[in-house]
Write a structure and sequence with these properties.
Length: about 450
């Protein structure tokens, strides 16, 4: 079957950036075979050499930081400052993973009559399927530790954002990584992505994307008992107690759900505010939302850029019918995919915008009565990825952050992802963890070997 092409559009203007050839199912088969061969040599190389090559890869990424960042602004509409951070995050992830190569040790288990040792063996070829919202960091979250643990990686970027991934594969070769060890296979999810999931030569799939697609991938992986890590959707709470520093909580709220135009799996899109301070909080929040600067992502003073595509714009619009009460910021008219910052007030807790992942600059604000009510509301969702707790009461901060069923919580801040701390979701937000001290172990099988001393 001949290749089809994907059009990569600039979300700021809606104009064509590049046409990228999609990988056919047959080409996926060839890529798997080549990757498997490359992986054998990679796994057999001295750990110090693998670590050195990954550090060199990090250094080459660092030399191309600005180029990668500008590419991300063009294909994903990210703010230039964010895009620079994202390229730097890839460099840091590679450096962090490189530090793990020589520390990936097994254990010695006490036994009678011999010696018992565990080995952490690489899986082989790992398939990474990435979304469009953070194309570079999310690709690197899996790719860096998988390579460090001795695997080959086949990365399928999202249809709308393949350019930085392709450039990273080029930089890997420039850094001296073996040919075919890290390949980027652009293409449609249902074709190229599915071929990776189905291929018996792919030992593990790391999927980041929607819960709907994640479930289908998990079901297919189950057929082969293929290893799978899933990083899925979210509808995270931002819980503001009456005893918090209300000014600080209100000031931090806009970017907790507007960063990356709300296209963030950790976006705090359910703002839960304790009833006695509800009105005051909205008074403080309104000017903060209305003054968010929405516009050209290449301009350093811009705070929020466009949405990724027309499809995403229509999807976000469908959650905010005309006339819903709320606080609204402004957005440019004209070409590009623009939606204003929006906080919906007076919305029922079970309304779609309060319950479903909008994946745009839209949050719902809901009142609560006491700590138990806050926890109940926070957990009244199928998701469990992230969340924040604002309070000055240390005991409450501990109780509530322990009670909220989510993988990544922050107290008096909205931070969530640090590559040296574990990241992942409860409930329908995912399965398994990425990043953190155990990142490499997720790309290994534990093998136990007993050596008899009796013979
Ligand atoms: P998506 O599920 O539509 O697509 C994600 C990737 O899967 C793309 O590369 C797509 O081509 C591929 N794909 C689609 N159908 C497939 C199939 N049948 N088989 C194999 N691959 C297939 O998601 P999206 O719209 O690109 O991304 C947005 C979603 O990602 C949101 O739900 C967001 O919350 C989630 N996300 C989660 C995290 C996390 O870490 N938990 C991080 C970022 C984004």
């Amino acid at each position: 079957m001949p290749n089809t092409y994907h059009e990569v559009l600039d979300p700021t203007t809606g104009t064509l950036v590049e046409k990228v050839a999609a990988t056919t199912v047959a080409e996926v088969g060839t890529a798997v075979a080549l990757a498997a061969r490359a992986q054998e040599g990679w796994a057999a190389a001295a750990p110090a050499d693998r670590a050195r090559l990954l550090r060199r890869f990090a250094a080459v990424v660092d030399e191309h930081l600005e180029e990668l960042a500008l590419l991300e602004v063009r294909e994903a509409g990210h703010l230039i400052g964010n895009a620079r951070w994202e390229a730097g995050n890839v460099r840091d992830l590679l450096d962090f993973a490189a530090g793990g190569v020589e520390r990936l040790s097994g254990r010695q288990i006490p036994v009678a009559g011999g010696l018992d040792i565990t080995f952490l063996e690489p899986l082989g070829v790992v398939g990474v399927i990435a979304p469009w919202n953070f194309p570079m960091p999310i690709a690197a979250w899996a790719t860096a530790p998988a390579l460090a643990a001795g695997n080959a990686v086949l990365l399928k970027p999202a249809e709308t954002t393949p350019l930085t991934a392709l450039r990273l594969a080029g930089l890997a070769r420039e850094a001296g990584l073996p040919e075919h060890l890290f390949q980027v296979l652009p293409g449609a999810g249902e074709v190229t992505g599915d071929a990776l999931v189905e291929h018996p030569g792919v030992a593990k799939i790391v999927f980041t994307g929607s819960t709907r697609v994640g479930k289908r991938i998990m079901a297919k992986c189950a057929d082969r008992l293929k290893r799978v890590t899933l990083e899925l959707g979210g509808k995270s709470p931002n819980i503001v107690f009456a005893d918090s520093d209300l000014e600080a909580a209100a000031a931090a709220t806009p970017m907790s759900f507007l960063d990356n135009s709300g296209q963030d799996c950790c976006a705090r899109t359910r703002i839960l505010v304790q009833r006695p301070v509800y009105d005051r909080f909205l008074e403080l929040l309104a000017p903060a939302i209305e003054s968010v600067v929405v516009g050209d992502p290449a301009d350093e003073s811009t705070q929020m850029g466009p949405l990724i595509s027309r499809t995403q714009l229509e999807r976000v619009r469908s959650y905010v019918p005309e006339g819903l009460p709320g606080i609204r910021g402004s957005a440019p008219d004209g070409p590009g995919f623009w939606f204003p910052p929006t906080v919906l007030t007076d919305i029922a807790p079970d309304a779609p915008a309060a319950r479903e992942e909008v994946f745009g600059p839209v949050a719902a604000v809901l009142p609560f009565d006491d700590e138990a009510d806050a926890i109940r509301l926070a957990n009244a969702t199928e998701y469990g990825l992230s969340g924040s707790v604002w309070t000055r009461d240390l005991g409450r901060a501990i109780r509530v952050s322990r009670a909220v069923q989510a993988g990544n919580l922050s107290v008096n801040s909205h931070s969530s992802v640090r590559y040296w701390a574990p990241f992942g979701g409860y409930k329908q937000s995912g399965l398994g963890r990425e990043l953190g001290p155990d990142a490499l172990a997720a790309f290994t099988e534990t093998k136990n070997v007993f050596f008899s001393t009796e013979v």
